[in-house]
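Hey L., structure's done. Input below.
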Amino acid sequence: MDLISRISENFSESAHLKLQSMDALAGPIANAAERMVQCLKRDGKILACGNGGSAADCQHFSAELLNRFEMERPSLAAIALTTDTSTITSIANDYDFDQIFAKQVRGLGHANDVLLAISTSGNSRNIITAIEAAHESGMTVVALTGRSGGKMAELLDSNDVHICVPAMSTARIQEVHLLALHCICDAIDCLLLGVQ
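Output:
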């Protein structure tokens, strides 16, 4: 096995997908940032949920907002629903794993808030129930998916934003998700701080 060739191929596939996705995703990414800025200006907050690598993306995104991205600014209200193991395990134990995010959304979410829902397949049941809970609360949903968008795509309404990476590989989708999240952070800073 030629590892150098294999690694080079991974780099090439990732770069190609990012460039291929740019035109299709730039609009939804801009819309997501605008919805999040509207939320923050109304003293709302952004709640983020995902599983596995997507859970890590939620934490990464929340950290960029609560602390800072690439420039100094006040903290912005964001909560990763993936971090409180006592809450997650008690909900999973007492009810069902599918409810671990939905119950948090019902307890923490309000009409001015945004739910950032991340699933590479678009079919994660606990993310789907979180979207349903967000809609019940009158929240806007920003969904990051891949492939066809799965069942999540069917749940979204006209107030929501869907950023769907046109790829099948979970790793490649996650790489574009991270870029999309960084673009959202940058756009939020530009919109709030007037950066050109």
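The chain has one domain: 3-193. The two ends are 47 Å apart (CA to CA).

-- N.
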